[in-house]
Design goal:
seven-stranded antiparallel sheet, globular, 6 helices
Length: 268
């Protein structure tokens, strides 16, 4: 055997070893997937920082009224609004988004309840104070139309927020998983993995993109499926936890103001 043939055999041997190693690795990963209890859920990530968690919960699309507005397609015009572009800034948020976040975050049900109108009162002045605290601006608008996920009526000095949310069917959902948060100088960045879910033909289809073109996983919508991740910001589907590297990561950036942190952008 000459020297050239020997080198050739050595190279072929190395390539075969690499291929065998890759195959073994893939088989190992497949075994781990089989053990995954896809019908169960996990707790969402939590950091020991009350400011970070308050900001995360304020803008989470699965929480309270935001589930009906953004976290599902109950109101189709706003489904997945935060993730509909590669970057959303504060100036992109319309009155429906900003006012819904305010009402959702204000704990309005601790206010005075009106039995006749079945709603909770919040004074216009108090609404303005909370708006300035959340956004650092005074550009609020009190024109409430039927785009809102809760009925709001404007009276002389008050706004009256209905006791209960608008119902409605949906076949699209958002599932979110907070993976990290960083506080640096006057900024806080919160990182979140997002899955876009379609309910169709008895299955949940998990997509990585807003347009639902890149399928990551599908799971049968069986009776024993733990659905507690739906409209619950504190619970996340194990599909999203296990395959988080296959879904897109979004960064929420907040800038420090006088008394609070204000949303600057949401970016993929």
């Amino acid at each position: 055997m000459n020297k050239k043939d020997l080198v050739k055999y050595v190279i072929v041997g190395i390539i075969l070893l690499i291929i065998i190693g890759v195959v073994i690795l893939l088989l190992g990963n497949n075994k781990e997937d089989v053990k995954l209890n896809i019908n169960s859920v996990s707790d969402n990530y939590v950091v020991d920082n009350s400011t970070v968690m308050s900001l995360y919960n304020r803008y989470n699309s699965e929480k309270g009224l935001l589930f009906n507005l953004i976290g599902s397609n109950t109101f189709s015009d706003y489904y997945g609004y935060f993730y509909s572009k590669d970057k959303i800034t504060y100036s992109d948020l319309d009155n429906v988004i900003k006012n819904t976040i305010l009402i959702n975050d204000s704990d309005y049900k601790t206010g005075e309840y009106n039995d006749e109108n079945n709603c909770y009162y919040m004074t216009k002045d108090n609404f303005g104070v909370i708006y300035n605290k959340l956004y650092g601006k005074d550009d609020y608008n009190l024109n409430f139309d039927d785009s809102y996920p809760v009925e709001v009526r404007v009276e002389e000095d008050n706004i009256c927020i209905s006791d209960g949310e608008f119902g409605g069917s949906y076949n699209k959902l958002i599932d979110t998983y907070m993976v990290n948060a960083v506080e640096e100088y006057n900024y806080i960045s919160i990182y979140e993995v997002v899955a876009f879910i379609k309910i169709e033909d008895g299955y949940l289809y998990y997509y990585k993109d807003y347009d639902m073109k890149n399928l990551v996983y599908k799971i049968e919508l069986s009776k024993n499926l733990d659905r507690s991740f739906i409209n619950n910001a504190n619970i996340v589907s194990n599909v999203l936890v296990e395959y988080q590297d296959k879904f897109d990561l979004y960064e929420y950036t907040y800038v420090k103001g006088v008394d609070s942190y204000y949303l600057e952008s949401i970016e993929k």
